[in-house]
Amino acid sequence: MIRLLCLGDAHLGRYPSRVPLNDSDLSVKTVWNRSIDYAISEQVDAVILTGDMADNTNSYFEAYGALRQGIWKLSESQIPVVAIAGNHDHAVFPALVESMSDDNLRFLGSDGVWTETIVKTQSGKSLRCVGWSFPDAHYDRSPLETLHLSHSDDFTIGIVHGDLDNQAKYAPLKRSDMAAQLVDLWLLGHVHAPKLYDDTRAPVLYPGSLQALDPGEPGIHGPWLITIDQQNQVHARHLPLASVRYEKLPINISNRRRMEEINIAVTEQLDEFAQELIKSNPELRHLSCRLILSGKTELHRQLSTEGLINTEMFDIDVQQCRVSIDKVSTNTAPLLDLHEIAQLNNDPPGMLARWLLELDQEDDHKLLSISREATTAIYKSIGFKNLGEREPDPETLQRLVTQQAMLLLDELLAQKEENG
User: Fold this and answer.
1) Which of 82, 124, 246, 259 has the CB geometry, 3.0–4.6 Å to 215, for a possible disulfide?
2) How far apart are CA 134 and CA 143, in angstroms?
């Protein structure tokens, strides 16, 4: 049986966003060191690094020293390291190899040329690793165009940093081309969302970022333990060794009539949510949440205009983990009976209520058409073009239109009541 630890996209030198600064427990370096300790304690056959271990903005400071120290520690335990370079650290690994007079670090694919190495495992079986590294910061062709493998009786792992099924400037890869190669397992880097494709003869694994770095990287993060059994079947297990996690938390506040009741609901559900996550993520030290408030409430207008005031008051400690709110989205609705209001014939509230009812039934209502045209014009304007923001998708646009229409309806009804 062969056991490997696989990780990539650590971006050593970067620090997670939306969390307290200068907390060593939350640094990428801490998770890297934790992964090294795990590999040594489990006495794995090899550690495989899939690129972008260093961040290009800080590649020769924290990143270089942390990488070097970790690899030396593995070398002392006689655990080989097989590595490739990604677009961020294409200059780091060649320099690292030159500075280390130790064949424990097997750097593959220098200058964008496929190379291979044989790893002798504790079981006596040989493992063939073939890899390709970024020669520069950008590479807009498929590295597979230059891969020509001969048959081998050894289990073969392909290691490459690239963008799967996406035409991009970062080594685009196609699953169909990968399946055609004489490779038994593909280990990839570049995409920060972990993903295992195990529905083909040769599984494909993106280990994802080692430590979550921003709210766009939710869920479990950490290295993967890969086991290859006697029948060459691959088993992969994600190890939740990361200390930072970003999550969205929906909170239903229906029938809450006072802000104090909403505050209690938020606090209780944050605590319950964190308790559950810590059970499966014992190394968690900071949980950053984006709340989504939903449900029908009399406080809809206040929440939509003011939001939750002073979200820092909800920061809590759950065991060893700090829980904080990064952002609050309001997706509530007022306590209105649209069918009843729609009976108000030619009154503006009646017309708006009927449109809202129609919005639930029609995919291309005139309100959406008008909003879509206006949104497109705004996003194509010079100011928005420079921001590089994408237009909202149809589902998001409908939600925003409905939310604003409900606010307007609430205001129209309030004015109608004030005027008698």
Assistant:
1) 246
2) 9
Given a cut of 90, whether residue 332 has pLDDT beyond it is no
Structural contact between residues 208 and 193, judged by C-beta atoms closer than 8 angstroms? yes
The predicted pLDDT at position 138 comes to: 87
* Terminal-to-terminal C-alpha distance of the chain: 81
Residue 105 CA to its chain's centroid (Å): 28
- What does the DSSP 8-state code read for residue 275? H
Contact 116, 108 (CB under 8 A): yes
Tokens 């206040």 sit on residue: 302
CB-CB contact of 169 with 137 (8 Å):
no
Which segments of 307-347 does DSSP mark as H helices, in order? Answer: 338-341
Order across the sheet with 81-83: list the strands: 105-107, 81-83, 46-49, 2-7, 224-228, 234-238
> Which pLDDT score, from 0 to 100, does residue 387 have?
65
- Give the distance from CA 308 to its chain's centroid: 26
Taking the whole predicted model, whether its pTM rises above 0.90 is answered as no
pLDDT in tens, 201-254: 899 999 999 999 999 999 999 999 999 999 999 999 999 999 999 999 999 988
> Could you give phi then psi for residue 278, rounded to 5 degrees?
-65, -30
How far is 22 from 215, CA to CA, in rounded Å? 19
Which of 53-62, 119-128, 306-315, 408-417 is predicted least confidently? 53-62
Q: Smallest Cα–Cα separation from 304: which of 395, 400, 407? A: 407
Question: Which structure tokens are listed for 64?
Answer: 């270089």
Q: Residues 188, 190, 195, 197: is their CA dihedral positive or negative?
A: negative
Specify whether the CB–CB gap between 111 and 120 falls below 8 A.
no
Asked whether 181 and 142 are in contact (CB, 8 A), the reply is no
